[in-house]
Amino acid sequence: MSSMVQPAIANSRHMPLRWWALIALALAQFLVVLDASIVNIALPSLGSELHLGTNTLSWVITAYVLPFGGLLLLGGRLSDRFGHRRLFMTGVAGFALASAAAGLAASGAWLLTARAIQGASAALLAPAALALVTKLFADPQDRAKALGIWGAVAGIGSAAGVLLGGVLTASLGWSAVFYVNVPVAALVLAAVPFLIAKDSLGERITLDMTGSVAVTGGIVALVAALSGTERVGWTSPQTLILAGLAVALLASFIFLEKRTANPLMPLGIFRNKSVTGGNLAMFLIGGATTGLFFALSVYMQQVLHYDALKAGLTQLPLAGALVAIAGVVPAVVKAIGQSRTLATSLILLASGLIWLSLSPSDATFAANLLGPSILIGIGLGGAFVSGTELAVHGVTDEEAGLASGLVNTSQQIGGAIGLAVLTTAASARSDRLLDRGVSEAQALTGGFSWVFLGAAAFAVIGAFVVLAVVRHPRLSK
């Protein structure tokens, strides 16, 4: 490695290469977030070609979310142990190979296996990438800008999933939603060695494997229980057994972490109120956004009868608003603080969701969807940027991988819980409306309105939690 590149991290304030490194890291993070939503619109054509039933189709999403959410904490700690750059590149390579395998899938089992490997690879690269960002940008002002871009990428990835999923499925077929990852990942792998210095051989962290097994098993069991509720119900033996297993494993994890010399997740990190507040907010943001994008894509296709391409293109205003606001957020954070910026963003997000919940079964895009979409984009842009900043504020380099894993874990678990709760409520609402004799379109619309209102409630709760937990943290401090 050249002498110009070698000090990229150590002397980050004066090295412009760090911004190119940020682009490479953000591209990989974009793929990780994108793959949680891009498959939604492709599911009907994918299921038809691979002869998958409705219940199996839901596992195309779950097979990705389970290992992703379950392995994130371990992935963050592994990156602290073996090196952030090394784990990042390993995760990107695995993600690219699994994406290619998913695009080539000739059966449901093949596809689900590839999706699981995608999720596990994402759990390696995501926390390592964010840890690298926090190390590359040590200066508070530079870090604010970098995390602003990072948070915007996370929000754009969620919105772009529906957009790109529709465009790619309509033009190239369902396999394109997986193939698109491969060239981007290859570009990242080629660029990173020239932009980020090799991992230093500092003090090695002893891994807490017992705690790793307990927390990974607990999170997987929790996500599996919640993901299956719409299909089997909240009181089914499957849900109750998995939920009980999750509680037991997570309780044992906390017990173990208090007593081990080298814990996987030192509980003292939560004495940092910014970390606590940021993760609580990201948990609730995950619940709101996952429910939002799932319900919105289904509402547009099943109720408004948009095709895949039109449903995707309607996300452009939301994504555009998100991108536009992301550049402004760091200045707002500097002026009023992270917690106030985050709370304000969440209130704006809730307002847009409430507005969207008023959309009728014969809604038009210009009259009913455009305004809420722009307001939601503004709220999401501010929430993702300030929430990410808050969740990693004040952590040490040794805790960077852990803090990054926590942010992603909070968002993924929040998404799983939010989706399970909101879709169950929507189904119950639609069933009651059908029993009253309303049309199917009106019943579905009524159910989706509950999803949007529930997502708004998550956002409002998040705003109050952040203001209660965090005391005016600013990057300048």
Describe the structure.
- This protein is mostly helical.
- The chain has two domains: 6-207 and 264-469, MFS general substrate transporter like domains (Growth Hormone, Chain: A, Up-down Bundle), CATH 1.20.1250; 208-263.
- It is built from 19 helices and no strands.
- It has helices at residues 17-34, 43-50, 54-82, 84-103, 108-136, 140-172, 176-179, 181-195, 209-227, 229-232, 237-257, 273-303, 308-313, 316-326, 329-336, 338-357, 365-391, 400-435, 440-469.
- Helix 5 crosses helix 18, helix 12 (273-303) runs antiparallel to helix 17 and helix 16 runs antiparallel to helix 17 (365-391).
- The longest helix is centred in the last third of the chain and has 36 residues, at 400-435.
- The radius of gyration is 21 Å and the shape is globular.
- Residues 1-15 and 473-477 have low confidence and may be disordered.
